[in-house]
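Crash report, auto-generated. Payload:
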Amino acid sequence: MAIGEVTPFGQNARKRGSAEEGAGEKFSTYFFLVFQILMVVAFGLFAEYGVAVHPDKAVDNGASVEEIYPLYQDVHIMVFVGFGFLMTFLYKYAWSSVSFTLMIGAFCIQWGILCVSFWDKLFKNRDEEALDVKIEMNLGVLVEGDFSAAAVLISMGAVLGKLSPMQLMFMALFEIIIYALNRAILVDELLVSDVGGSMVIHTFGAYFGLAVAFWARPTNQKERLSEAKSSYNSDNFAMIGTLFLWCYWPSFNSALAGNSANTRQRVIVNTVFSLATCGFTTFLMSRIFRKGKLSMVDVQNATLAGGVAIGACANMNTNIWGAMTLGGLGAIVSCFGYAKLQGILESKLGLHDTCGVHNLHGMPGVLSAIASFIFALTASEKDYSAAGIQQVFPSLNGDSPSDFDATDAGLRQLYSLACTLAFALVGGTMTGLIIRAFSRFTKQQTLFDDEESFEKED
Amino acid sequence: MAIGEVTPFGQNARKRGSAEEGAGEKFSTYFFLVFQILMVVAFGLFAEYGVAVHPDKAVDNGASVEEIYPLYQDVHIMVFVGFGFLMTFLYKYAWSSVSFTLMIGAFCIQWGILCVSFWDKLFKNRDEEALDVKIEMNLGVLVEGDFSAAAVLISMGAVLGKLSPMQLMFMALFEIIIYALNRAILVDELLVSDVGGSMVIHTFGAYFGLAVAFWARPTNQKERLSEAKSSYNSDNFAMIGTLFLWCYWPSFNSALAGNSANTRQRVIVNTVFSLATCGFTTFLMSRIFRKGKLSMVDVQNATLAGGVAIGACANMNTNIWGAMTLGGLGAIVSCFGYAKLQGILESKLGLHDTCGVHNLHGMPGVLSAIASFIFALTASEKDYSAAGIQQVFPSLNGDSPSDFDATDAGLRQLYSLACTLAFALVGGTMTGLIIRAFSRFTKQQTLFDDEESFEKED
Amino acid sequence: MAIGEVTPFGQNARKRGSAEEGAGEKFSTYFFLVFQILMVVAFGLFAEYGVAVHPDKAVDNGASVEEIYPLYQDVHIMVFVGFGFLMTFLYKYAWSSVSFTLMIGAFCIQWGILCVSFWDKLFKNRDEEALDVKIEMNLGVLVEGDFSAAAVLISMGAVLGKLSPMQLMFMALFEIIIYALNRAILVDELLVSDVGGSMVIHTFGAYFGLAVAFWARPTNQKERLSEAKSSYNSDNFAMIGTLFLWCYWPSFNSALAGNSANTRQRVIVNTVFSLATCGFTTFLMSRIFRKGKLSMVDVQNATLAGGVAIGACANMNTNIWGAMTLGGLGAIVSCFGYAKLQGILESKLGLHDTCGVHNLHGMPGVLSAIASFIFALTASEKDYSAAGIQQVFPSLNGDSPSDFDATDAGLRQLYSLACTLAFALVGGTMTGLIIRAFSRFTKQQTLFDDEESFEKED
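Recovered output after restart:
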C-alpha cells in the first residue's frame, strides 16, 4: 500500500482507509509479537545474572535486596499504579489509561534495559569489545528499566486519548532509543548530577511527548476536545495515582542515589520537604488562580511538581529551607501552567497537552535543572565531605575532592539541560512525523474513548 | 468587621455575610501563604540536616534508611491514601475528603515537626539555651511529622463535611500546638509507654475532634444531615482506605519502636494478630448488631479498631493471645459504637461525628490505655530482658532494671490518659469556640458537598 | 431439622426453608464466634513469641525485620488489596468481594498458622512429643498465614457470588486443613522446590475452588449467570487489584526464598522479567484472540499469569530468557483460557468459574510445575554454587552437593504436582458436597448481588 496515494473520493478513501488500517493493526500486533520474541533472544545473547543474582557467584549480596528493593517497589507502584491511575481522569478513557500504562510499562522495562545498557556500554568504553561484555542483571538495572518506562509514560500523558494503542507502541519503541542515547550522553559524557532524573526522565519525557502531540495530532482533534473531560468518579480514581506518586516520590529520587555520605537519606528528606511545601502551596495557589475555588486538575498534578523540582538537586546540600523553596516554586510554576499557560498554548499554537505534562514535568524539570546549576555553582568541598562531593558531583570523576571546580560542575548542568531539550524536541518531532506518515495504517478514530480499543460487555 | 453585630434583616445579613465571608476566605488564603513562607524561614533558622543526613558528617548511616524508611513509607500511605480514601464514603464529598487530607497532611508535616521539636526541647532540657540547639532532621523526625498529621486527620473525621477548608486549616493550626504540648508532657514528663500512639495520637485526635464538632457545628447541621450518606461507589472507594490502613497498621505502631530486645518485631507480630482477630470479629459482631446483615460502616472502620486497641501495649509482653483478645475487644467496642452509641450521642447530645472517630479512635484508644495500665502493673523484670524492660518502659528512665516499679509504670499510663483527655477536650472546645466565633468570615454553606469548594467541569 | 426431608408443597418448603436458613445463619455466626475464641485459646496454649520476638531472648534480631518485613507487607497488600479489588469487577458484588476477602483473610491468617504449624511439626518429627513444642511466632510464620489466606482466596474466586458468606467461611475452615496437609506432604515429605507456591498455593487453590464450584453450585445458577457481569467503574476498581498484584508479585515469590547464594535477588529478577513479558504478551494475545480488540478480563488477569508461571522455578538458574519465555507462555495459556476454554467448560461441564481462576492460577500453576521439572532435570552442581544447589533443591536434604541427583529432584516436582491435584480435587469435592448438603441452612438466594448480605442506605 503506497503511502500518500491520492484517493479521489472521500468515501472510498475512508473505506480503503479502514481496510489499510485493519491491515496496519494486524501487522502491528504481529510485529510486536516478533519484537517480543527478539527481545527474549536479545536477553539470551547479551544478558546474564549479575554477581548479586547468579547462584554460582560466591558473593552473598542479600544486603543489596534490603537496600534497594523497597525503593524499587515504590518506583514500580509509581510507574504502574501512579501514572496509570493519574491518567484515568478522562471519564471515557480510564480503561485505556490504566491498560496502556501496563502495556507500555511492561514493554519499556525490557526494551529500556536493552537500550540503556547498549548506549551506556558504548559511551563508557568507546570500543567495540565493550559490547561483548554481557549486561549484568540486578536490582539497579531493574530500576533503570522502570525509569525508561517513566519517561515514555510522561510522553504518553501529552498524547493521551489521541493516539491508538499501536501508535503509542511505536512511539515507545523510538522514544526509548533516543531516551537511552540522551541519558548516556548526560551520564557518561557530560557527567551530569541528576539523581532524581529531572532532566534525564522528566524534562525529556515531557518535551518529547509535546513534540509528538504537536506533529501527530489527529485531524479531528479540535472538534473532539470537548470529550477530553473528567467525571466525578474519574477524578476520584485519578487521586489514587496522585497520592501514591506523592507518597513514593522520595523513593523515585533516591532509588539510585547510593548510600555513602548519607546521600540516600538526604535525598529522602529533601524530597519530602519539597513535596510537603509544594502540596500545601498548590492548594493556596489554586484558590488564588481560580477565584477562590480549587481545581481537581491542580490538586491531582501540581501537588507533585515538588518531586520534579527537587529532582536534580535532591542529593545536594540545599538545606531544608532550600528544598522547601524549590517545592513552593514548583507549585507556583505548575499551578500557573495549569490555570493559565496551557490554554494559551492550546489556542495559540494548537498544542493540546492532555495531562498537562508541560506543567507537571516540563517546567518543573527545567526549574530543577536551573536550580541544580545554582547549587553546583555555589558548592564547595567544605559543605560536603570528600566522599559527599564525589558522590553528588560525578564531574569530579575521580579527581581529588580539593580540585572540585564548581563552575565546571554548574555549567555541565546547563549543557545537560540544553542537550536534553534538543534530543527531546528533535526526537519527538521525528517520531511525531513518522506516526503521522503512517496514520493511515493505524490511528484513533474516536478520541478520548475506550470503545475503539476494548470489547464492551453488553 | 465587628463580630456579633446585630443585623435586622435576614437578607441583608446574608448578603453582608457573604461579603465578609468573601473577605475572610481571601484573607485566610493569603494568611496561610505568609504562614507557609514563615515556616520556610523557621526551618532555615531552627533546623539542619541531622548526623545521618548531612553530607559533611563523616558517619555513614545508610543502615538507618533500611531500618526506618520502609516503615515510614507505610505510615505515609496510611496518612494520605488510608485516611484520605477512608473518608471518601460521603458520596458528594469525596473530592474534599482526599484533597483536604493532602492539604492538611502536607501542612501538618511541616508545622508538626516545628511544634513537636519545640515542646520536646523545652521539656527535655528546661532551659532556654536548649532552644538554641537546632532541630536535627532525619527519618525519625519525618515520622513525627506524619504522626502529627494523623492526629489532625482523625479530628477532621469528626467534623468532615461541616467545616470549610479554611476552618479546617485553622483547626489544624491550633490542634498541632496542643497536640505537641500534650505529647511532650506524656513523653518527656510522664514517661508514658505508648509505642503506637493510642493515647498521644488516637485518643487525643478523636476527643479533640469531637469537641470541635460539638462547639463549631453549623447552624444548619440538623436539616442537612441526610446528605451525609454514602453511595455504592463511594463505599468502594472508602475500602481502599480501609485496606491500606489495615495492612500497614503494624508499621504505624512499630515505626518508632526501636530495635533492641526484638521490640520492633514484637510490635509487628502483636499488631498483626490484634488486627486479624479484630477484622474477623467485626464481621460477626456486625451481623449480630445488625440483624444478620453486614454494614459497610462497620467493615470500613471497626475492622481497624484492633490497631488502636493494641497501640499502647504493642511492645509489651502481651503474648499472642493477649494481643488477640485486645483486638477482639476492640471490634466489639467499635461495632457497638457504630451500631448503637453513635445514634444516641447524636440524638441526645446533638453531637454529630461524621466518620465515627469516637468508635474507631476514641473508645479503642481508651481501651488501649487501660490495657497498657494492666500490662504494666503486672510486668516484671523476669518477663523482659534488662534491655527489653528499658526499651518498653521509659519510666525506668535509666535506673537499674531491677529497680523497675510496676505500680509506678502502670499509674503513669492512667495519668497520661487523663492528661490526654483533658488537653483534647479543653483544647478542642477552645478551638471550636474560636472557629464558631469567626464563622462569619469562613464557613461551609452547603454541608457534605464538594460543590462549594471546587470548580466543576460542565 | 432433618436434611432431605420431603416437603409436599413448594410454598411451605420455601417458608420452612427460610426459617431453617435463618436459624442456620444465626448458628453459623455464633459458631464462628466460639471458633474465634477457641483460636485465641489455642494460640495461648500452643504458641509463643519466637526467639526474634520475645523480649526475654537475648538475641537481637532487628535485622530480620529489614530482611523480611517489606516483603511481608507487599504480600499483605497483595492478599487484601490485590485479591480484594481484583474481584470487584462484578458490578453489583463489589462490597462482598472486598469485604469477604478481608473476613476470610483475617480468619485464615489465624487458622492457617495453627494448621500449617500442626501438620508441619507432625511431619517433620513424626512423634507425638513434637507437638508439645510450641509454635514459635515470627515474621516467617506470618508469611505462612498470608499464604494460607491466598490459597483460600483463589478458591473463592471460582465460587464468587454463588456462595453465601457463611458457606465461604465453612469452605475456608475445611480448605485450610487440607491445604496445610498437602503443604506438609510436599515440603516435608516430597521435599519439593516451590519457592513461589505455584503448586502449594496456586494450583491447589484453583482446583480446590473449581471442585467446590462444581459440586456446590446453586440450583438457580444458570438463570442468574447474566448478572455476573462488570460495569465501567467496576472494571476500573478491579484494575487496582491487578496493578498491586502485578507490582508486588516478586515479593510473593521471594518472601520465603532465603538469602544465601543470592537466592532472593534471583527470584525477584526472574519474576520481574516473567511478569514484564507476560504483561506485554497478554495485550498482543488479547488482540489476536478477540479480533483486534482488548478485553478487560484479559488485562485484569492474564497479565498476572507470569507470576504464577515462574513461581516454582523462580529461584532456579533459568536465566533471564528462560524466565521471559515462561512469562510469555503463561500469557498465551491464560489468554487462551479466558477467551476460549472457559466458555467450553461452562457449556459442556456446567462448570462456572467466576473469576477464571483456572486460567490465572490453575493452568499457569501446572505449567510452572512442569517447567520446574525440566529445570530440575537439567540442573547440575556446576550451574549452582554448593550453597545455591542446597537452597534451591531441598531434595538434597543435607547430602553433599556433589551427590545432587537431578532425576530425583525433577521427579519430586511431578509427584508434588500429582499430589496437589489429588488433594485439591478430592478435598474440594468433599467440601463442595458438604456445603451442598447443608445448603438448606445457609445459601445465597440472589446470586452476584450484595443486597442479600449488606444493609443498604436508602
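Post-recovery validation: Chain B touches chain C through 67 residues (CB under 8 Å).
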